[in-house]
């Protein structure tokens, strides 16, 4: 290969940059999609005195976070690292003397750290001139420039090629102003310099820092090399009172020096999900942003957020601006990233809630997982986001240092004098005021902030209208024939009213559907489709977690504020004179009531255009409503109403999505949007997705008047019980829940930051139109424009108003109907395919395939055709069927969704032909691990690890060739699943380690994957427990899936599966099936392009699935880059599925998707039918290859140049532009595809040593004890050893619980004892990081403080977040507190700890948890099994428990008392816990302080009642 010969130099860097720009322009890659994540931390002297030790600790900490970053292929180019310290003045005095000046020691000096273009000397001079002239213009004196000494030996080639020239400018405070003013003027100077450099178009210029207080050294080196590269940092005179450090892990492989962190004030680990909304609102706030401190200079600092900033850089810019305007760092953090408060009436003091309510009136929160380390020069603080989704552990040492960071043990501390060890919880802060020399913990700092202004008085002016609106009686606007016309004109159908609207008004819940989506994309359809159908919802995968909006509703908020949002920089009561609602949904009568309460003039704008067929009528009408809105706001209107109810026979309504976005984007552009609210009344709006699109386009509230009228009509005709007001209340509840779900799958919890963020991707809307009316939204497949939309709207309008019929069309969008939307799986095609598989007739299969291709276009691939490679070749020269079949996979369908018979049939069939089947997420029967008497192998080659971790044991993980991490599912990406109790049979309960008949919940995120470096850790864990298996990561196609795939490849995955949105499913909300995710053609191509561009494509195998129906589909997938192909729905149909689409109800008439024994007996599927199916696919592929002149599939993989767009179907489809799918990346022809390559290796753990030292135990079963010293970089200890135990002795072995005891001292790294097997015992004297006992399978883990530690165990944190995730068996004893999400999804481990953070025992289904200390909020959410005991002497626990699924009572029954006491006694024996020993000593007294917590569903299953009294019912 030619890789070794590439010269990395400036020319290479230029070519790389050009390539990326070309890809962004022509392909599917977009620079905004890049993500980064990392390790972050701070060291600060509490007394604020400078010392050398602080700097050294910061440098050492960087050496201990290396495993949280990624390394390029050259082994030396990191993703970026850096350190932020105070300016060591004496050191710089010496530097000044070297320039020949004598420094003025009575004046402050400032230092600017500056990146200049290294190779372009002319540009360098330009930059120096800009910098100097701006400093002088402000009236300061320049001592001179200094070359920063660097050692380039430690850099990788790529980093060196992009390395800037690094210089410092030394400035004197010649004006003798005070420090605050000097610092603020330096900020203005820097903003002016940046603007001037941008205007001069100088590339490669960047100011890292320009300050009289501190200095930043950063770059693209590995974390451990920061001080090697910058020898300054090793100088003894380099002293500081604080150090903030950061290590980056990015999805990008092109090193950009300026993106390394820390930024000017903060270092951020995480991801801001609401970035688009925040940046848009910031543009509006900017216009009104004026401040006395800046005076005339206010214009110089705008725009506040620079073009092309990453999410962290944008957050930093706003943070800095708030601080420079006089806010302290803790207050700025509270404004930007507040904790969740609106649902926390109980826990939070009123003063805090008033402060948060005020902050909410001023600023949209920046929402998403975040661990922040920040400083404003005086304060140094660490903080977390409202969900606490990144770790932040801290230690207060005996020497008076506060050390905080992503892991514990990054800076070795003296255990004998340590003062405190803790972990920050959701929304918490820890801060040091260096001027005062004082440490503030969370409550102290928030009390101080809340008392700093009379917030309570100010928020008294907020007008909350909910109670008022709840008293109104609803009434319809239109009835009778008028209503019919409007319904038809809005595109309503009987199906939509009955399948979508009715369930919402009856049950207050969204409709559930199943079996995926096989209808055309909106742009390809011949039917009328509302504009909302062109919008695909975004969702988060890997780089940040979705949220569970049901079980964690306390952090979610739909609070909607209206009215005039004042200047963000002021602090006074005028900012709170606003109206607030609890939800953006408003009924008809409620709307009128709302208008009566408006606190400013209101203007109504008519959103219709004349029906006279003028060809640009819609475009002109949009211009009209834009200018009317602008005029209204300029003349003082505070509320604008956009409505389409003025439509009539000669007035056509415009799509309200278009109208809303047109007005919102125009007002934002003009800087007027924050002066008014935008209230929308829409006829088309009916499902939660339409509401979400309107709000994403900028609507403040939405009134779906026609949907409400349709309900009134049904009530009047006796088809719906209850009053209209009740029906609307339920409809609102369903829409609210739907909105929360759509926001939460992106990881957004607050609607004010979702509003106006356009978090969608358009498929098939013209780029020009999107740029004009939906600025910032992505539309990579350009299509229909304003004129096309106008034609479609006029057509449906004429049908309603002029069609002369008042009968609603029947529909057919959800289930196939003759007159309705096309469905790919018709009754005839299914029958042909089944007959072909039953009889083994390839002729029939070819007829089926022809029939499929004769359908009108349904998918993007239907508009593509092949170009031959050359002459056709004889069939016998093409790769054999046997060899092609091995590339097929049946994707993960769980035993639970499928019947046991169907599940086993797939495994047997795929194993017979050497292909792979996937177990799905429900575990697998250990009986399947041995072949059957006839030689068939019923065990799946791929075992799935999904978010529920059901049945994931050390044994399960060892019986396979591939482990698949299912990050998302095509039918409902970003959502969890639920297996209703009625489907949980004895078999399923046994495999999933739960109880028969009790509901099982899969959470939306993997609780050990909140970011890309967490995924790298899970991949590492899986490669330790199974030393042979490859690891697959399953993603769902979305915009940005390419950059995520690049991050996954850097995390050492072996296979990446990109699923299309239209895959089958057992049960998902209808809007998720229809509107979330993208077709696989787009996702697969993007992944292939971005991996190839980053030179990572040959590290991984690409696989795809989601509606592959014929051999032609397979060949297209191959050309777009896929090497393996998943066949799900087709395999079910071959086994008898007939698409009744009622999987969710356990009533499958053919026994494929049901657990009901009577129906299962009707199952007729056999392995032979499935083998026939795969053979037909392969045979058809072989024939196509022969025709194209290819001899193997490998020859066409990635050859997009063999595909061309063809014209078929409607004329307007010719506007569709598929070119971005068909480009070829530079250098792609060198990629070598090999499905059989060995797996990507990961470094060894300590276990390599343990296995060597324990050879006598592993060989002969001798009892042994070993000891080691550990550090946080020793991860996943005990896992590889457990793999050996399972292979040598099996899971159900006869070993003693401590047959092999491993004693460790120090801070253990992440995943201590993950998947630990029976016979292994690990004892740690010290502490441990996140994921202790993940998937624990029978081992015993003990963590306790060292003997000489002075700490009180129950007040200090000893283990990290997400402990015992998915554990099935074993024990954990920890003498100290655990972090957030303790025992999440525990289904069998027994554990004793001394306190835990928020969301403890979430989704727990088995095992016993004893907590001898304080718990955090939302304890036991979604817990449906197992038992918990909480020691609660102060009676605080009750208000922190989520009582939805639980009952609580004192411990009275002797059986439960014995269970509790036995565990506490064992805890004392293992950890010598002082607190537990004390409890046992006063047992009679203390027993009464325990609360026993049991799930309601378990009451009928537990062996003894909870209380001893006869017939007592536990108190709710």
- Provide the spatial order of strands within the biggest beta sheet: 43-44-45-46-47-48-49-50-52-51
From the 3D coordinates, which CATH architecture of the largest domain would you assign? 4-Layer Sandwich
Biggest sheet character: 10 strands, mixed
Q: What is the arithmetic mean of pLDDT?
A: 92
Could you list the spans in which at least 5 consecutive residues all have pLDDT below 50? Answer: 1-5, 1510-1516
* Content-based structural category: alpha/beta
Would you kindly provide a written description of the structure presented here, covering whatever features stand out?
The chain is of the alpha/beta class and 1516 residues long. It has four domains: 34-459, Glutamine Phosphoribosylpyrophosphate, subunit 1, domain 1, CATH 3.60.20; 466-801, TIM Barrel (Alpha-Beta Barrel); 827-857 and 859-1067 and 1077-1230, Alpha-Beta Barrel (TIM Barrel); 1247-1498, Pectate Lyase C-like, CATH 2.160.20. The protein contains 46 helices and 52 strands. The strands form twelve sheets. Strands 43-44-45-46-47-48-49-50-52-51 form a ten-stranded mixed β-sheet, with helices on both faces. An eight-stranded parallel β-sheet has the order 32-31-41-40-38-37-34-33. Strand 37, helix 33 and strand 38 form a beta-alpha-beta unit. Helix 9 crosses helix 10 (329-336) and helix 15 (480-489) crosses helix 21 (705-716). It is globular, with a radius of gyration of 32 Å. Keywords: 3Fe-4S, Amino-acid biosynthesis, FAD, Flavoprotein, FMN, Glutamate biosynthesis, Glutamine amidotransferase, Iron, Iron-sulfur, Metal-binding, Oxidoreductase. GO terms for molecular function: 3 iron, 4 sulfur cluster binding; glutamate synthase (NADPH) activity; metal ion binding. Pathway: Amino-acid biosynthesis; L-glutamate biosynthesis via GLT pathway; L-glutamate from 2-oxoglutarate and L-glutamine (NADP(+) route): step 1/1. Residues 916-937 are annotated as: Disordered.
């Amino acid at each position: 290969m030619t890789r070794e010969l590439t010269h990395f130099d400036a020319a290479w860097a230029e070519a790389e940059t050009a390539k990326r720009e070309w890809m962004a322009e022509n392909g599917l890659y977009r620079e905004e999609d890049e993500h980064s994540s990392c390790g972050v931390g701070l060291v600060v002297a509490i007394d604020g005195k400078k010392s050398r030790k602080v700097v050294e600790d910061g440098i050492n900490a960087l050496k201990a976070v290396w495993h949280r970053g990624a390394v390029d292929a050259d082994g030396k180019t990191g993703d970026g690292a850096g350190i932020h310290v105070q300016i060591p003045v004496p050191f710089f005095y010496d530097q000044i003397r070297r320039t020949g000046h004598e420094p003025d020691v009575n004046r402050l000096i400032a230092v600017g750290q500056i990146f200049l273009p290294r190779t372009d000397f002319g540009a360098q001079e330009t930059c120096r001139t800009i910098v100097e002239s701006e400093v002088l213009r402000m009236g300061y004196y320049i001592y001179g420039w200094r070359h920063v000494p660097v050692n380039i030996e430690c850099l990788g080639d790529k980093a060196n090629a992009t390395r800037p020239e690094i210089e410092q400018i030394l400035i004197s405070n010649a004006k003798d102003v005070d420090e605050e003013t000097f610092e603020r003027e330096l900020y203005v100077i820097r903003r002016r310099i940046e603007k001037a450099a941008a205007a001069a178009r100088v590339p490669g210029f960047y100011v890292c820092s320009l300050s009289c207080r501190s200095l930043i050294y950063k770059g693209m080196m590995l974390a451990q090399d920061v001080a090697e590269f910058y020898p300054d940092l090793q100088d003894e005179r380099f002293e500081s009172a604080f150090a903030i450090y950061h290590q980056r892990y990015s999805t990008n492989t092109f090193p950009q020096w300026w993106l390394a962190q820390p930024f000017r004030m903060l270092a951020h680990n995480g991801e801001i999900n609401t970035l688009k909304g925040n940046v848009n609102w910031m543009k509006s706030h900017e216009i009104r942003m004026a401040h006395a401190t800046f005076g005339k200079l206010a214009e110089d600092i705008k725009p506040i957020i620079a073009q092309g900033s990453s999410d962290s850089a944008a957050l930093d810019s706003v943070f800095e601006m708030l601080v420079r305007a006089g806010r302290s760092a803790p207050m700025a953090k509270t404004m930007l990233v507040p904790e969740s408060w609106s649902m926390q009436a109980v826990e939070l003091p009123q003063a805090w809630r008033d402060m948060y309510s005020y902050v909410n009136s001023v600023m949209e929160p920046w929402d998403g997982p975040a661990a922040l380390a920040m400083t404003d020069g005086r304060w140094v603080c660490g903080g977390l986001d409202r969900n606490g989704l990144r770790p932040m552990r801290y230690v207060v040492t005996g020497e008076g240092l506060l050390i905080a960071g992503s892991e514990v043990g990054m800076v070795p501390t003296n255990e004998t004098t340590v003062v405190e060890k803790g972990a920050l919880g959701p929304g918490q802060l820890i801060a040091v005021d260096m001027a005062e020399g004082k440490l503030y913990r969370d409550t102290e700092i928030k009390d101080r902030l809340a008392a700093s202004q009379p917030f309570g008085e100010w928020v008294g002016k907020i007008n909350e209208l909910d109670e008022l609106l709840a008293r109104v009686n609803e009434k319809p606007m239109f009835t009778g024939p008028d209503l019919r016309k409007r319904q038809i004109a809005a595109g309503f159908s009987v199906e939509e009213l009955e399948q979508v609207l009715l369930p919402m008004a009856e049950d207050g819940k969204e409709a559930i559907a199943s079996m995926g989506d096989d209808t055309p994309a909106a742009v390809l359809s011949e039917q009328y489709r509302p504009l909302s159908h062109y919008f695909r919802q975004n969702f988060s995968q890997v780089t940040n977690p979705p949220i569970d909006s049901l079980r964690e509703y306390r952090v979610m908020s739909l609070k909607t504020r209206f009215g005039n949002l004042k200047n963000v920089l002021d602090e006074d009561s005028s900012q709170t004179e606003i109206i607030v609602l609890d939800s953006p949904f408003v009924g008809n009568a409620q709307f009128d009531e709302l208008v009566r309460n408006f606190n400013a003039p209101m203007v109504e704008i008519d959103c219709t255009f004349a029906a006279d067929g003028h060809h640009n009528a819609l475009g002109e009408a949009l211009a009209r409503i834009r200018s009317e809105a602008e005029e209204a706001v300029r003349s003082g209107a505070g509320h604008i109403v956009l409505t389409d109810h003025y439509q009539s026979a000669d007035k056509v309504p415009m799509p309200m999505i278009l109208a809303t976005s047109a007005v919102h984007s125009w007002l934002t552009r003009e800087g007027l949007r924050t002066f008014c609210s935008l209230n929308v009344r829409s006829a088309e709006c009916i499902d939660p997705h339409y509401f979400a699109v309107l709000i994403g386009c900028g609507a403040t509230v939405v009134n779906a008047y026609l949907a409400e009228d349709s309900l009134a009509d049904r009530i009047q005709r006796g088809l719906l019980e209850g009053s209209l007001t009740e029906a609307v209340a339920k409809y609102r509840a369903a829409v609210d829940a739907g909105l929360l779900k759509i926001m939460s799958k992106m990881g957004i919890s607050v609607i004010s930051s979702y509003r106006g963020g356009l978090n969608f991707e358009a498929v098939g809307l013209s780029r020009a139109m999107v740029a004009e009316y939906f600025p910032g939204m992505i539309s990579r497949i350009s299509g229909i424009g304003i004129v096309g939309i106008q034609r479609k709207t006029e057509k449906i309008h004429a049908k309603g108003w002029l069609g002369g019929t008042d009968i609603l069309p029947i529909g057919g969008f959800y289930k196939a109907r003759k007159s309705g939307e096309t469905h790919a799986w018709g009754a005839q095609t299914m029958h042909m395919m089944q007959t072909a598989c039953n009889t083994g007739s390839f002729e029939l299969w070819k007829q089926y395939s022809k029939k499929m291709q004769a359908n009108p276009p349904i998918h993007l691939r239907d508009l593509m055709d092949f170009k031959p490679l050359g002459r056709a070749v004889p069939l016998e020269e093409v790769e054999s069927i046997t060899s092609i079949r091995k590339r097929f996979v049946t994707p993960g369908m769980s035993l639970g969704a499928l019947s046991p018979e169907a599940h086993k049939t797939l495994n047997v069939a795929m194993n017979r032909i050497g292909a792979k089947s996937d177990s799905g997420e429900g575990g697998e029967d250990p009986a399947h691990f041995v072949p059957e008497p006839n030689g068939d192998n019923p065990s799946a080659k791929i075992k799935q690890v999904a978010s529920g971790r059901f049945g994931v044991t050390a044994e399960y993980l060892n019986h396979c060739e591939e482990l698949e991490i299912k990050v998302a599912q095509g039918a409902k990406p970003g959502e969890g699943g639920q297996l209703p109790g009625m489907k949980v049979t004895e078999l399923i309960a046994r495999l999933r380690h739960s109880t028969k008949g009790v509901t099982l919940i899969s959470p939306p995120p993997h609780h050990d994957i909140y970011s890309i470096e967490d995924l790298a850790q899970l991949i590492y864990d899986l490669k330790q427990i199974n030393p042979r298996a490859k690891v697959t990561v399953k993603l769902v196609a979305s915009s940005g899936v390419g950059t995520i795939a690049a991050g996954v490849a850097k995390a050492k995955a072996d296979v990446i599966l990109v699923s299309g949105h239209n895959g089958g499913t057992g049960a998902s909300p209808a809007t998720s099936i229809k509107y979330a995710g993208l077709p696989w053609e787009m996702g697969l191509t993007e992944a292939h392009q971005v991996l190839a561009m980053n030179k990572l494509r040959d590290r991984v195998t690409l696989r795809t699935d989601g509606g592959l129906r014929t051999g032609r589909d397979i060949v297209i997938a191959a050309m777009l880059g896929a090497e393996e192909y998943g066949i799900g729905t087709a395999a079910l149909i071959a086994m008898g599925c007939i698409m009744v689409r009622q999987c969710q109800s356990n009533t499958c008439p053919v026994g494929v998707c049901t657990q009901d024994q009577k129906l299962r007996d009707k199952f007729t599927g056999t392995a032979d039918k499935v083998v026939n199916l795969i053979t037909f696919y392969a045979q058809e592929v072989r024939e196509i290859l022969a025709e194209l002149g290819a001899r193997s599939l490998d020859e066409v993989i990635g050859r997009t140049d063999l595909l061309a767009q063809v014209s078929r179907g409607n004329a307007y489809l010719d506007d569709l532009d598929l070119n971005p799918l068909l480009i070829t990346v530079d250098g792609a022809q060198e990629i070598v595809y090999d499905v059989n390559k060995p797996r990507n290796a990961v470094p060894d753990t300590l276990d390599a040593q343990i296995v060597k030292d324990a050879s006598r135990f592993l060989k002969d079963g001798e009892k042994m004890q070993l000891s080691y010293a550990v550090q946080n970089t020793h991860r996943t200890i005990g896992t590889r050893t457990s793999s050996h135990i399972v292979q040598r002795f099996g899971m159900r072995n006869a070993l003693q619980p401590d047959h092999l005891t491993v004693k460790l001292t120090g801070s253990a790294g992440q995943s201590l004892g993950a998947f630990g097997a029976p016979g292994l015992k690990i004892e740690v004297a010290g502490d441990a990081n996140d994921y202790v006992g993940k998937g624990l399978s029978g081992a015993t883990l003990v963590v306790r403080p060292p003997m000489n530690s002075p700490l009180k165990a129950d007040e200090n944190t000893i283990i990290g977040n997400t402990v015992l995730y998915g554990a099935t068996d074993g024990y954990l004893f920890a003498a100290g507190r655990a972090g957030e999400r303790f025992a999440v999804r525990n289904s069998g481990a027994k554990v004793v700890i001394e306190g835990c953070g928020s969301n403890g025992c979430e989704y727990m289904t088995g095992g016993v948890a004893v907590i001898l200390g304080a718990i955090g909020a939302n304890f036991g959410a979604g817990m449906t099994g197992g038992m918990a005991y909480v020691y609660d002497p102060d009676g605080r626990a009750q208000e922190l428990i989520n009582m939805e699924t639980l009952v609580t009572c004192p411990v009275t029954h002797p059986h439960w008392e014995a269970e509790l006491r036995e565990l506490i006694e064992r805890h004392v024996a293992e950890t010598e816990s002082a607190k537990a020993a004390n409890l046992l000593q006063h047992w009679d007294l203390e027993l009464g302080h325990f609360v026993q917590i049991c799930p309601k569903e378990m009451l009928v299953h537990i062996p003894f009642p909870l209380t001893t009294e006869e017939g007592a019912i536990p108190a709710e």
